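Protein in question passed on here:
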Amino acid sequence: MPQTRATAPPPAAWRRWAGLGVPALVLLGGALSFLSTAFSTDTFHDCHYFGPSLRMHIFGWAGLCAGLAAPLLYAALHRGALRRGWAPAASRASGAAMVFLVLGVLPLLFEAFVVWTLYAPDPAGGNDCSGLA
C-alpha cells in the first residue's frame, strides 16, 4: 500500500477523543485500582479470612481494563486519522494524549500489581487472626 503524506489537521471530534478520552481512561484506571486497595479490609471478618471481596475484583479488573484501553484507543484514533489523510501528530490533543500514555505506564504497572494481589496467597498465613497481630 503506498504511503501518502498526511497534511490536513484532524477535526474537533478526533481532537476531543484523543485529548480527553485517552487521559480520562488513564486516570480512571488508576482511580479504580486505588479503590480496589481501599477495600482491603473486606478480607477478614471476625478473625476469619474470606479472601478478596467481589468489590476488590470488580474494581481491580476494571482499573486494569481501563488502563489497557487507553493505548488501544490512542492507537485506533491515530491509525484512523492516518487513513483519512489527517496529521494527528501536529495537534496538541495528540501530544497531551501521548504524554498521558507515557506517564500512564506506572499506573498500568500498579493496576497489574493490584490484579496480581487478588490471586496471591493469604499474607497473614492462616484462617485466623494469628497473622494479623
